[in-house]
Structures are given as C-alpha cells and as structure tokens.
Write the structure tokens for this entry.
Amino acid sequence: MLGLYLRSHSARMLSMFACAVVSTLAVTTAHAQEVIRFGAPLPLTGALAPEALKQQQGYDLWADQVNKAGGIKVGGKKMKVEIVYTDYQSNTPRAVQTAEKLITQEKVHFLFSPFGSGAAKAASTVSEKYGVPTIASTASSAQVYDQGYKFLFGTFTPNDTLTVPLAQIVKQKAPGVRRVAILARNDLFPLAIAQEMEKAAKQHGMDVVFFEKYAINTLDHSSALSQMKAQSPHWIFATGYINDLVLIKKQMGDQKMEAPVVTMIAGPAYQEFITATGKSSENISSAAWWHTAARYKGQDIFGSTENYTKLFREKYKADPDYAQASASVSGALFQMAIEKAGSIDRNKVRDELARMNVQTFWGPVKFGPNGQITSLVPPVFQIQNGKTVVVHPAAIKQGEFKLGVN
C-alpha cells in the first residue's frame, strides 16, 4: 500500500510539476511576445567608453519614447522595447563574440552594431550568418558595406561626403592654403577618412606634405607633431576618437603649433571636447552627419529635429550631438520597418529597411543597394566662441567659416 501511495503521490506531484512548467512556459512565451529585444554591444569600458555612453543615451531615449507610447505597433497589438547591452571593453574581437552571444543566448530579435567602422564590419559577419537585421549607427567607411551583405544598414553617409565639402570650403575661403598635414589613428574609420581627406586635398590643388599614422592607445604624439611642425603646414588634419584628439590638441599647444586651418574628426562635435580643450578649441573645424541646427520634420516617433533636441535636453540636461542622434534614429528606423511589416519576422523587417524612403528628425533616410544611407548632406561646422557653428550646407548655415591661428 505504501508503495502504491508513493507511486500515486509521485504521479500527482509530477503532474503538478508538469502543469507548473507549462504555466511558466506560457507566461514566458507571453512575455516574449510582448517584448521586442534589441541587442546593443557597446565598448562601455576602455578607451571608447565616452562614445559608448553617447550611443547608450540615444538608444535609451528612443526606447523611453516608444514604451511611453505603449510600444511598437505589430499587427493588431503593441509590443514594448527592451535593449540588451553588453560590454566588449573596446576590444574588437570581443565585440564579435558579444554580438553572437546576444543573438544565440540572449535571443535578441534585432541588433545594433558595435561602435565604429572597424567593430561594425567585424560583427556584421555574425548578424549576416544568423540573418539578423542590423543597423550600424556609427559606421561610415565604405569597407563596412562592400561585403555584399543583405542584413546590414548604416545611418552614416560615406566618408568623402565630409571631406570634399571641407576641401571646397577651405579652397574658397583660403586659396593660399596649400600645404596639408594629416595625422590619423590607425583604425578603420579614422584612417579611411584621413585617406579621403588626402584625396580631396589633392583634387583641390593642395599638397599633402605629411601623412602619418599613430597606433591605437598612443599616449604621446610629440614626435609625430614635431615632424609635422617642421613641414610648416597651412592645414592640420587629425583623426581619431575623442580621447585621442583631446590629447593631440593639448600636445599641439605644448609645441606651440599653429596653422590657419585646423580640422579634427570626430571629437569637436562633442561638447566634451570643447570643455576639455577650452579656448584652444577656437576655430577648429570638423564635420559630422547631423547637428541640432537641422530643421527636419519627420515621420518617426520624435517628429522633428526640434522635438528630438527638446526631449534629449529634458532627459540628459545637455544638447545632443550626432552620435546620440544617430543611435536614436537607428531605433526609430527599426520601429518604422517593424510597423510597416506588421511583424517581427526578420526577413520581412529586413525587406522594409531595404525599401525604406522616409523623412526623419535625422533627415531623409534611404539606403543604397549596399545598405549604406545615400540621402543625407552632412553638416560642416567650426567651434566659434565655445560653440559649434554650422557653416555648410546653406539650408542650416549658422555662420561663416573663419581662419585662425590655433
């Protein structure tokens, strides 16, 4: 009898356990159906942490707005947004690993690329392998989009859309500028845009008298700057990320380096650069893919450039720059593609991104056959009186380009 009781009790317990498991799975499945998960591998620690913070702010602002509105419309229901962040510690091979983990273990539906062209290109092999639509919000180099991939899209126009307008402006405003010196971080985007600057300078009749690369994590540029100074350049062009360029500008000051034109990409777009370099940032020129001076009326959740800027200020007590805005529009583009598809089916969303032709707070968005945006005119700006002032294009121009001794 005892054995019969135990067998009967065990059967009841097993049945109850099975019901509990089914119930738990049902709840989990229901929860999964209510939430769209976006993976965001970011360099939250290491040398690129300042840039990662900007991306995170942009993604979070978008997610906040979507969830406040009840979620993304998918067919006849709304689904909330969840962003799953992973830190790849400013290490590109680790960025690839974290992207795969987000897809295979965290089960994200869609992916945002890691920061920068190099890491975005490396990780794109993973999203392509698994057929996961991916938007790169900080990758402009042509080498990212020349792989024939179908699931990668990018919100930055090619690098020459920044360098050619810069060369045209300098040629027009300062025809005496002939000698160009270039110092570039030896990393995919900084080196690629430096090479485009070299081409643009030569196309506009200038001589490139110095071109030097520096290694990632370089902490002393004095030797390269000394060699550059010996060439008496009229135009100094330096590339890198914010920590690199702050250091280069300070070490230029140590050597009393001066030139009529000093351009840095991409640090001067950030208020942090102006704060760190102080008065020595005056008249430094740069270019980026967006500026708060833009006045776009969009179909996205933010509605307009002015409203996006307002919402960003309310949340972060600061003005947004192009890095934050690009992250936000990347989320908004996913949202519009999902709503148009009426589904979170990856292939359907991918197809909607490929055929997308919309106006957003970021500007007009249309992707070329390779997935890179083709529809933007990036602003050229200059730091004047401690603020970034747009000098091109005419539609959003705020001031005139100035020559100065930096």
